[in-house]
Design a protein that fits this description.
Helix content is 2%, strand content 33%. With 453 residues, it is mostly beta strands. It has a domain of 304 residues: Pectate Lyase C-like, CATH 2.160.20. The radius of gyration is 23 Å and the shape is elongated.
């Protein structure tokens, strides 16, 4: 089996303790539950006292609070410490707020930037463990976000898959089914989310656009696992919040999802979540020009990568996304309402939609332990599928009509793939092609270079 080796990202946190005068300075503050001269007893008190650009160093301890950050600062764990923010009974563990929560929102003009949060465990929030809204150049590094989204109410009736999240803030227009997940970026640009662990939440990480565009963010080297009720990592365009005054979604675009491990998410309910999901579900939604690269996507409830739209309109933009160099294995079937029979089986990558999905590139992925490696259920699709290892030995590529529209499938340009044997698709011991308009020759006669376990 293949393995993509993710880089390690050392956490360079230097405790700023020094003298009492240092601790009381404008630039450097400390927080300790043990009485120390010049230190604050709560993180919130230090944040309130900080001036822009301050560094707040937090000592070991359990801090029961919801930390609300509205100015540039660095909030970091002391050397050899792993402080815990226990947000029991609170909306969030950490809320980096560029205006949504303080009534000063200017959509598309983020005024909060240069915030760093590093080295914490954040747990037990009613909604997100870490929520970032309307901010730029935020760094979230080597945090553990676990057991959040506690207000999520699961269905109690048999065959009811609808979850709700009472009292979630109204600016989160589409989070009733997941309470915003463990880490949530709304209207955020140029953020770096690196080396974090998100597990045991409703979903792992979410990038959405209710209050402004979310773009040019890097989500790299994170471990996202055992989030039972949604995807490991989700990029989703949603309807705009009323406070923005906008009638159209802002868009989720030009983000990079690289080198992450997304494992065993979305298994708590049937079809609850993929390893990585790219969604533009309704009219005017925009999730485009994102890159999903070098991730390890295994044993999730939905396919390793799920790309969905659900409305018959040309105004949806789910174009020009790239899925490259991922290891994908052992994932579940697609649970979308338009699912065709070819994707009602364990599937590596599912491209599903009513309106055309164009400019999609799927390349250099290694897919195994799936019944269908790649399925395209999208009339009018234009998909480039090349240089992949399609080793499931079932359907390597299925190109099928959408059951809702019942119109002809689109074109899949699928040359130079490895089909599991030297003699090409459909021959003995090889994966096959299902459906029309799949160009599958020439093909590779030996597998592309693989990272092996």
């Amino acid at each position: 089996m293949a393995r993509y080796l993710c880089a390690l990202f050392p956490l360079a946190i230097v405790a700023v303790i020094g003298t009492s005068a240092d601790r009381a300075s404008a630039a450097n503050l400390c927080v300790s539950q043990i009485s120390l001269p010049g230190c604050y007893g709560t993180i919130g008190a230090a944040v309130a006292a900080a001036t822009p650009g301050a560094t707040i160093v937090v000592m070991q301890g359990v801090y029961t609070e919801d930390v609300h950050i509205t100015q540039p600062l660095s909030l970091v764990a002391a050397d050899n410490a792993r402080p815990v923010i226990n947000a029991i009974g609170q909306p969030n563990g950490i809320f980096i707020d560029g205006g949504v929560g303080i009534g000063a929102l200017t959509p598309g003009a983020n005024t909060l930037s240069q915030v760093t949060v590093a080295g914490f465990t954040i747990e037990n929030a009613n909604f997100e463990g870490i929520l970032v809204a309307n901010a730029s150049f935020v760094t979230l590094q080597q945090n553990t976000v676990t057991n959040n989204d506690l207000f999520l109410q699961l269905p109690t009736a048999e065959n009811d898959n609808t979850e709700t999240c009472p009292s979630i803030p109204p600016f989160e227009t589409n989070e009733g089914a997941d309470c915003g997940e463990g880490i949530h970026l709304i209207a955020v640009d140029h953020a770096t989310v690196i080396g974090n662990n998100s597990h045991g939440n409703s979903g792992g990480m979410l990038l959405s656009d209710e209050t402004g565009p979310t773009h040019d963010n890097l989500i790299e080297g994170n471990t996202v696992e055992d989030n039972a009720y949604d995807c490991g990592i989700t990029l989703a365009s949603h309807g705009p919040a009323l406070i923005t005054g906008s009638q159209t979604p802002f868009g989720v675009y030009s983000n990079t999802i690289a080198g992450n491990i997304s494992h065993h998410n979305g298994t708590g309910l049937p079809g609850a979540g993929a390893g990585v999901g790219l969604f533009a579900p309704g009219p005017l939604n925009q999730t485009y020009a994102n890159v999903v690269s070098g991730n390890r996507l295994t044993d999730n409830g939905l396919p390793g990568v799920a790309i969905h739209n659900h409305a018959p309109t040309n105004n949806i933009n789910l174009s020009n996304n790239v899925v490259i160099g991922n290891y994908i294995a052992g994932n579940g079937p697609d649970g979308g309402v338009e699912t065709a029979s070819d994707s009602q089986v364990p599937t590596g990558i599912s491209v599903l939609g009513v309106s055309p999905i164009t400019g999609l590139i799927i390349t250099q992925n290694w897919i195994e332990r799936e019944s269908t490696d790649i399925v395209i259920t999208n009339s009018g699709a234009s998909v480039d599928v090349s240089l992949n290892a399609l080793t499931g030995k079932g359907n390597g590529i299925s190109n099928v009509s959408n059951p809702i529209t019942n119109s002809a499938p689109g074109l899949v340009f699928a040359v130079e793939n490895w089909w599991g044997c030297q003699t090409g698709p459909g021959t003995s011991g090889c994966s096959s092609v299902s459906g029309p308009d799949v160009v599958s020759t020439p093909f590779l006669r030996q597998p592309p270079q693989a990272q092996t376990e």
